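Q: What structure does this chain adopt?
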Amino acid sequence: YPYVRFGLALTLMNDGYFAHEYGDTWHGNDWWYDELDFDLGYPLGPAESLDVTGAPPQNMIENPSFEQPIGLTWGFWANSGAGCVASVARDLRTAADGSASARITISATSGTDWHIELNQRDIALAEGAAYELSFRAKSDAPRPMTVSSQKQAPDWDNYGLHKTVDIDTAWRPYSATFIANADTNQSRIQFQLGAAAGTVWVDDVNLHLAPPIVLKRRFTNGLVLLNASREYQTIQVGPGYRRLTGTQAPRHEYIIDDAD
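A:
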């Protein structure tokens, strides 16, 4: 039941076609829902994102724009045993935010991304919570860079973030959203740069709780809402609307025995 409703709402948000399948746990139960009978008409515009938080998110990164000395809040490591030679410095000649950025100069590398990294330690994450890491970066030549969240001590568990982005010679924004898979206060946010030699700049690093993804789209005969978060959301729809009612769609569903 949640699968069918989520799939239908997502389809309506993107001008797609929705196929009614049999059931939501396997293809053997022909269940029908009242909203499948409703004529929404035609969309009045694209889907809109709703801000249900009411407050800007708090940045969990210290010294995010490198306006203070790097070594006070950021760590740097290059695997010299694998032949890596690299350094980090605060660059006052170029910045995407404020007056400074972090410049990483990679003279020699093993070609393995995690053998050279800029990181910030002691990041607290809550299991099941969604986080967004955003930053701006550039390099002296097109190259890959990996961002990761990893335990700062053995056994080096990953906490849900591992993404490679392609950067180039212009300052550009990048972001990655992830779900933390454990409660921890020992996570590192890492910029892994060992894939290639060269120079990389990083600035404006922001880690915060990701706002819930809630969308709405107006149609000639109704309004469709999509809550893609894991929490209940309260949304003011304004006058003139009433919720669909009927007997074909239960408000709750329980799987009694999913082993049989």
